[in-house]
C-alpha cells in the first residue's frame, strides 16, 4: 500500500523535535551535531533568537497580504540585496526551483524584447542541479532526472564539465540566450568552478551577448565566506538565483538581476501568490542584516579554515576511506573512495549529520555560525564514524 506520504525520499529513521544552534535533538532525546543544516538552509543554526524574534514580530503583525500591495519587509530585503550585490532588482520566490523558472523566463524574454526571439538556448553543465520542476530537469537532462517525465521543455544544452573547447563551440551558436552555472556545484559533489573559468565565462558572454546566470541557491548567502560565491572570482552575473540560506529555514528564494537583464519582466509577465510573503521577508531581511556583515563573513572564513584543516587530517588518518577534501568556505565535501552512504549512516550512530552528494562525496554544510568547540566535536564524531566504517569493513 502506498504510504500516506508519497515515497519519493529514502528517509533516514530519524525525527528531530528540537533544534538549538548547530544541534538537533531527536525524539528519543539523543543530540546530533548538524553538519547538513537542512542542506545549506539553516545558515544561522536552529532557533536563532534573532530570527525567532523577527518571525514572531511579523507573525503578530500580519502574515500574508499578496503582491497586490506593497510589502515593507520585502522592500527592506530587496534594498539590502541590491545594496550588497551586482543586482539592480529582485523578484522573490518560495524556493530555488521557482527561482530557476524565473531565471529561464527572464533570459528568454530578454531576447524576445530585443527582437531576437530565436535566442532561447540555455547552456548548462554536467553534474549541475537546478531543481525538480519540468524546466529544471530539462536543464540538467540526465536520465535519472528526466526518465518518464517527457516531453521535456526544449532549449537546453548540457556541456561536459571543464571542456572549454565544447563550451566555445556551443556558445558560438546564434540561438544561445544564456549560460547557467553553479559557481560551486552542490548536488554534483561540491565542485568549485575555478575563478579563471568563471572569468572566462564572463568574457565569453560579453563577446556573444549571452546572459550569464549564476545559480547560488546552495553556494550563496555567506556559505563560501563571501556573501556570494562568485565574488571570489571578481566577476558579476547578469542574473542570479538565490534560495536556501536566505530564509534561514523559512521558505524563501529570489532572482536578482541587473536592470538590463530584468527590464523585459514588466507588469503581468510573472507572479507568485506567496513569493515575498511578509513572514519570509521579515526573516530574510534579518538573515541579510547578519550574514551581509563583513565581520560575520570574516568569522565564517576563520571557522571554515578550522573545519577544513580538521577534515584534511581526517582524510590523512583514513586514506582507505577518503580521497580528498574539496569545496570552499563552509561548503565542503569529503570525496570518498566508495559510495558514501555507509559513512553518513555511521555518522548517525556517532551523533553527527552529513549529507551525501553525487560523485561519492559527503557534504558538510554546517550553520555559518557554528562555534569552534562544535567544529572540534564534529570532527571527533566524524573520526569515530570513519572508525566505525573501517571496523565494519574488517
Ligand atoms: C544549486 C541548486 N539550485 C536549485 C535548487 C532547487 O532549490 P529548491 O529545492 O529550493 O527548489 C537546489 C536545491 O538543492 C540547488 O542546490
Automatic annotation (TrEMBL):
May also have succinyldiaminopimelate aminotransferase activity, thus carrying out the corresponding step in lysine biosynthesis. It is found in: Cytoplasm. It comes from Limimaricola pyoseonensis. The keyword Transferase applies. Its EC number is 2.6.1.11. This is Acetylornithine aminotransferase. It is an enzyme of class 2 (transferase). Keywords: Amino-acid biosynthesis, Aminotransferase, Arginine biosynthesis, Cytoplasm, Pyridoxal phosphate, Transferase. Binds 1 pyridoxal phosphate per subunit. InterPro entries: AcOrn/SuccOrn_fam, Aminotrans_3, Aminotrans_3_PPA_site, Class-III_PLP-dep_AT, PyrdxlP-dep_Trfase, PyrdxlP-dep_Trfase_major, PyrdxlP-dep_Trfase_small. Belongs to the class-III pyridoxal-phosphate-dependent aminotransferase family. ArgD subfamily. One of its GO terms (cellular component) is cytoplasm. Pathway: Amino-acid biosynthesis; L-arginine biosynthesis; N(2)-acetyl-L-ornithine from L-glutamate: step 4/4. It comes from the Bacteria. Homodimer. SUPFAM superfamilies: PLP-dependent transferases. It catalyses: N(2)-acetyl-L-ornithine + 2-oxoglutarate = N-acetyl-L-glutamate 5-semialdehyde + L-glutamate. NCBIfam families: argD, PRK01278.1. The gene is argD. Pyridoxal 5'-phosphate binds at residues 96-97, 129, 215-218, 273. One of its GO terms (molecular function) is N2-acetyl-L-ornithine:2-oxoglutarate 5-aminotransferase activity. GO terms for biological process: L-arginine biosynthetic process. Its cofactor is pyridoxal 5'-phosphate. The modification N6-(pyridoxal phosphate)lysine is found at residue 244. N(2)-acetyl-L-ornithine binds at residues 132, 272.
Amino acid at each position: 500500500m502506498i504510504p500516506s506520504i508519497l515515497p519519493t525520499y529514502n528517509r533516514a529513521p530519524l525525527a528531530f523535535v528540537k533544534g538549538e544552534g548547530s544541534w538537533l535533538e531527536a525524539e528519543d532525546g539523543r543530540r546530533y551535531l548538524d553538519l547538513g543544516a537542512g542542506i545549506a538552509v539553516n545558515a544561522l543554526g536552529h532557533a536563532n533568537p534573532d530570527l525567532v524574534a523577527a518571525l514572531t514580530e511579523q507573525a503578530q503583525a500580519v502574515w500574508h497580504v499578496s503582491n497586490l500591495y506593497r510589502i515593507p519587509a520585502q522592500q527592506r530585503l530587496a534594498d539590502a540585496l541590491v545594496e550588497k550585490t551586482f543586482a539592480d532588482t529582485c523578484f522573490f520566490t518560495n524556493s530555488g526551483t521557482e527561482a530557476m523558472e524565473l531565471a529561464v523566463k527572464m533570459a528568454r524574454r530578454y531576447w524576445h524584447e530585443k527582437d531576437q526571439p530565436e535566442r532561447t538556448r540555455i547552456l548548462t553543465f554536467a553534474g549541475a542541479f537546478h531543481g525538480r520542476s519540468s524546466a529544471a530537469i530539462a536543464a540538467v537532462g540526465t536520465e535519472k532526472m528526466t526518465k518518464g517525465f517527457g516531453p521535456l521543455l526544449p532549449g537546453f544544452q548540457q556541456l561536459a564539465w571543464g571542456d572549454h573547447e565544447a563550451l566555445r563551440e556551443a556558445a558560438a551558436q546564434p540561438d544561445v540566450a544564456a549560460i547557467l552555472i553553479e559557481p560551486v556545484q552542490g548536488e554534483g559533489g561540491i565542485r568549485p568552478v575555478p575563478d579563471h573559468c568563471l572569468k572566462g565565462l564572463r568574457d565569453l558572454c560579453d563577446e556573444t551577448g549571452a546572459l550569464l546566470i549564476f545559480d547560488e541557491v546552495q553556494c550563496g548567502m555567506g556559505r563560501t565566506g563571501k556573501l556570494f560565491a562568485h565574488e571570489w572570482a571578481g566577476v558579476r552575473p547578469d542574473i542570479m538565483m538565490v534560495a536556501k540560506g536566505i530564509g534561514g529555514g523559512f521558505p524563501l528564494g529570489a532572482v536578482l538581476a541587473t536592470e538590463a537583464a530584468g527590464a523585459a519582466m514588466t507588469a503581468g509577465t510573472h507572479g507568485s501568490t506567496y513569493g515575498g510573503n511578509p513572514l519570509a521577508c521579515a526573516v530574510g531581511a534579518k538573515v541579510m542584516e547578519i550574514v551581509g556583515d563583513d565581520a560575520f563573513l570574516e568569522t565564517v572564513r576563520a571557522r571554515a579554515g578550522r573545519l577544513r584543516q580538521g577534515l584534511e587530517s581526517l582524510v590523512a588518518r583514513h586514506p582507505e576511506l577518503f580521497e580528498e577534501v574539496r569545496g570552499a568556505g563552509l561548503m565542503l565535501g569529503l570525496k570518498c573512495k566508495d559510495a558514501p552512504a555507509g559513512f553518513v549512516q555511521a555518522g548517525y550512530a556517532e551523533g553527527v549529520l552529513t549529507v551525501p552528494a553525487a560523485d561519492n562525496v559527503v557534504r558538510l554544510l554546517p550553520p555559518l555560525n557554528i562555534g569552534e568547540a562544535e567544529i572540534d566535536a564534529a570532527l571527533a564524531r566524524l573520526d569515530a564514524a570513519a572508525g566505525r566504517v573501517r571496523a565494519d569493513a574488517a
